[in-house]
Amino acid sequence: MLMRQAVSAGSAGPRELAFLRDRALVNEGSKQIYGTQIAGVKDGAPVPWPCEENSSASASVPWPGPRPSCPP
C-alpha cells in the first residue's frame, strides 16, 4: 500500500512496485506476476520463479529491454 502511494506520488516507479510485489508473492509461496524474481541460472540464462498465467498486469509496467519470460 505504501509503495502504491509512492508510485502515485511520483516518489517511486512502477518497476520498483513490480519487483516488490513479485518478491512478496514468491516469499509467500505464490506465483509471481511480473517475472522479476529469478530462481537460478541454467546454461547461462536466468530462470525466473513460476508466474501467474496470462497476467495482463505485467504489460502495464514500463520495462527497459526485453521482459523476462516466466515458466508456467
Protein architecture, described:
This protein has 72 residues and is α+β, with helices and mostly antiparallel strands. The protein has one domain. Helix content is 31%, strand content 12%. The chain has helices spanning 2-9, 14-27, and strands at 38-42, 45-48. It has a two-stranded antiparallel ribbon with strand order 1-2. The longest helix is centred in the first third of the chain and has 14 residues, at 14-27.
Structure at a glance:
The protein has 72 residues and is of the alpha+beta class. Helices cover 31% and strands 12% of the residues. Residues 50-72 are annotated as: Disordered.
Question: What would the average pLDDT be, to the nearest integer?
Answer: 82
Roughly what percent helix?
25-40%
| N-to-C series of helices and strands | HHEE
Compute the number of helices: 2
**Biggest sheet record:** 2 strands, antiparallel
Choose one word for the global shape. elongated
Physical arrangement of strands within the biggest beta sheet: 1-2
Count of individual beta strands: 2
Biased composition (Pro residues): 63-72
Region (Disordered): 50-72
